[in-house]
């Protein structure tokens, strides 16, 4: 999937995820975001993992290319536990105020960067 040539105002960014582990393997793969401009984003890049004890959740081959963010409100790049409570649960994400309130949900986040500037 290719998402390109966007201008985003006051958004949560180009988000991927909320992928919890599952016995049959949940995954999001092969997504490219390019030529995107953010104005006052809460986050510009948001890759969300979800905690769980059974199975595997994979977020793989995600490319962000030529992104520009002006006046980020929170973290311009967030890679880690989702920052929300899933509907009808007691909460599977970390606090929206993490790391300020130090309440988070542990997930195994393994990632690598090919190029970051």
Structure description:
Helices cover 0% and strands 44% of the residues. The model has no long low-confidence stretch (mean pLDDT 76). The protein has a three-stranded parallel sheet, with no helix packed on it. It has a three-stranded parallel sheet with strand order 2-4-6, with no helix packed on it. It has 117 residues and is an all-beta fold. It contains no helices and six strands.
Core attributes:
single chain; 117 residues; mainly beta; three-stranded parallel sheet; 6 strands
Please sum up the structure shown.
The chain is an all-beta fold and 117 residues long. The chain is built from no helices and six strands.
Give the overall shape, derived from the CA principal axes. Answer: globular
What oligomerization state is this entry in?
Answer: single chain
Our estimate of the beta-strand percent is 35-45%
Number of helices: 0
Q: How do the strands line up in the largest sheet?
A: 1-3-5
Report the count of strand segments: 6
Distance, first to last CA: 23 Å
Percent helix range: under 10%
Mean pLDDT: 76
Q: Specify the biggest β-sheet.
A: 3 strands, parallel
Radius of gyration, CA atoms, in whole angstroms: 15 Å
- Report the uncertain regions: none
The arrangement of helices and strands along the chain is EEEEEE
Structural class: mainly beta
